[in-house]
Design a protein that fits this description.
The structure is a homotetramer of 210-residue chains.
Chain A (H helix, E strand, L loop, with lengths): L1 H14 L4 E2 L3 H9 L5 E4 L16 H7 L3 E4 L8 H14 L2 E6 L2 H8 L5 E4 L13 H14 L4 E4 L6 H9 L4 E2 L3 H4 L4 H21 L1
Parallel strand pairs in A: 1-2, 2-3, 3-4, 4-5, 5-6, 6-7
Helix pairs in contact in A: 1-9, 5-6, 7-9
Chain lengths: 210, 210, 210, 210
């Protein structure tokens, strides 16, 4: 993981593309310390404060270890609405960016009212299948979210398996994209990651600069 | 409970006020069978379909027993956002009205995007305290919810301890109100309930008829 | 369900075999009222007392509706050890028999220390597969449980699909057996149930009377 | 925390007393790297394997970060019996010692069948109150656990607020003791910790060496 993170760190600088890495909490410190450009986000955080909560993930501890953000409400770690709302508040308090997962347009709209920094539009049924959200879905979710709160960045995530998928989704208007399986299942994960970052750069430049 | 329900049933007819009663699931059948006007809502329902789910509450079973609706996301039974969204969908499928609890204005707005029939605006910190949501909060939540979806009924719930509280909250624009502790802790729960229904009638007529 | 329960009720009397039926909580009242010999057990119960707990299953309410027992810790509704321990205590207090699920021999032994009335030895991986726990497993779990507490009845549950499976498991020393899928997926569930009860009678008589 | 850990590390060596420190997962790496004698245990671990499980705590990740053990089933992070059983199995697989919390004698006995390395006998009602488990409780739980499995170490935890409490509990036969509030609420936590370690040494020597 450390080796992969170092490659990603260089690539982030070289292509001027912001890369978020989401390791296990116990890997945050080392990865944050050994990289300069990567944005290390925790995979989850509990909406607790200093005091009770043995076994829960404390916001302040993530921040102290070097995390700059946190994923909330991942399909594999669903949160109650009240818990999610409080967690976003706690993250704001300690200075962690929030990236909240939604698995339908109406959930994305609902979450937008809680004002996270990023919403991950990731229809659960597509996770890990290699089937991308189509352009129509990308446009519909992005529009729906920005209508509620235009400051929220929209990350389109489901079914990204190669650089071409990345290119398409950024061209369709996504602020960001992401994948775990698309990289980890690739023959050469580092190469795949580099190609994906190049695709982000190309799609973004074609869409936003000219 | 049956005796109380029968009194409520008569009062509902007499004052032409719709009363929702939310018993334990095992009490639904008897209460639905022995009353004519009461609306029996389950306290919770799981977002499952017929098949696996031993120990969970099946939507179809509630409907078959005589329930006409269900509470979802009560502060004492929080649901994940995805679970809540699916539960509302399942309730719509089987023909159960949905009453979803929210404990802040932003949560109320978020929930409104999931299109339940009723939102209970009940700041958690006030439950059971005898301190009512003030008029400003009533107006703010009602406005926020209706702006997202004007068809949603807004039930203002926290801190209702007597008929005067009921009167105030309906006058402030709530579509409905509710209490458990306000009735159950009263010296005479039946009398308190009757007084509260009268207060609803009076406040509603003053606000809506003239 | 009511029709099925009435048939089971007659069969229970005719063959002098105790039958436990485990319906949804909202079906308990009607099934308990309309049958005489069936033992109606709830599918789950929360370890709560009268007071807070909207959306949870109250022991007293199950008892009042006519349940005589409750399943706890089903593989589809796992409980924490502390919650399970408290739930058994609450069930004892209100007079509900407890039937606790275990999915390995070591879990069965652990649960035996909490002194439920019945332990369901049901290796999770076999549920609904049609593959029975073999005789060796039946003997091993029964022996392990009785060694900790000989008063606990052992119900061997996994993979029962026909009367022959029932016969084998009772002959192997089980105090009881059970199935949902084996009956519900049968061409004629009532016939299958009757055949299974006959198999219990036959196996029990061969094992215990002579 | 790092400074405190370094003091504990020296004290552990000086008094030849094994000290377990249980930090947030994101602090494990640094604390394990900067100390030599301390035993770093994670506060919780999920019973998962490499693959899915975003937001859960992966056993392999804790091990890689330098943890040598893990707390399971803390009163603030209760686990299902099946989950606890699987977590102990996973910990054994990756080489992490297991310390499982029990809050009654019967739960302690039940957990003993799952063969963890350490059982924490900590009646929930005493946590953080400053009231120690009395000698009778210490003897009863230790005896009950060792009877099921004599290899399990018994840590008596509740209500330890000073060195005298530590001395008494070790003299009463506990293999170990522990506290969070007793140290963190002390005027000088480092001094309190050192006094407690001295008390362990003294009580242990009086009980076991002579």
């Amino acid at each position: 993981m450390l080796q992969f993170a170092k490659v990603a760190d260089k690539v982030s600088q070289e292509y001027d593309v912001r890369i978020i890495l989401t390791p296990q909490p116990s890997d945050i410190y080392l990865l944050a310390k050994e990289t300069k450009h990567l944005l290390i986000f925790a995979q989850h955080m509990d909406p607790i404060s200093i005091g009770r909560g043995n076994g829960s993930i404390l916001p302040e501890a993530l921040k102290a270890a070097g995390a700059v953000g946190v994923i909330l409400n991942h399909a594999e770690k669903p949160m109650s609405l009240a818990g999610l709302s409080l967690a976003i508040h706690r993250a704001d308090e300690v200075g962690l960016a929030t990236m909240v997962c939604a698995d339908s347009i109406k959930e994305a709209r609902a979450i937008a009212h809680l004002a996270p920094n990023i919403i991950v539009a990731e229809p659960t049924e597509l996770i890990g299948t290699g089937q991308t959200s189509d352009e129509e879905y990308v446009i519909a979710t992005t529009t729906a979210i920005k209508k509620v709160n235009p400051e929220i960045q929209v990350l389109q995530a489901a079914g990204i398996s190669n650089a071409q998928d990345v290119y398409k989704v950024i061209k369709a208007g996504a602020d960001a994209t992401g994948t775990t399986s698309g990289i980890m299942k690739a023959e050469n994960p580092e190469t795949m990651m580099i190609e994906m970052i190049r695709a982000v750069r190309k799609a973004w430049d074609e869409t936003h600069r000219f």
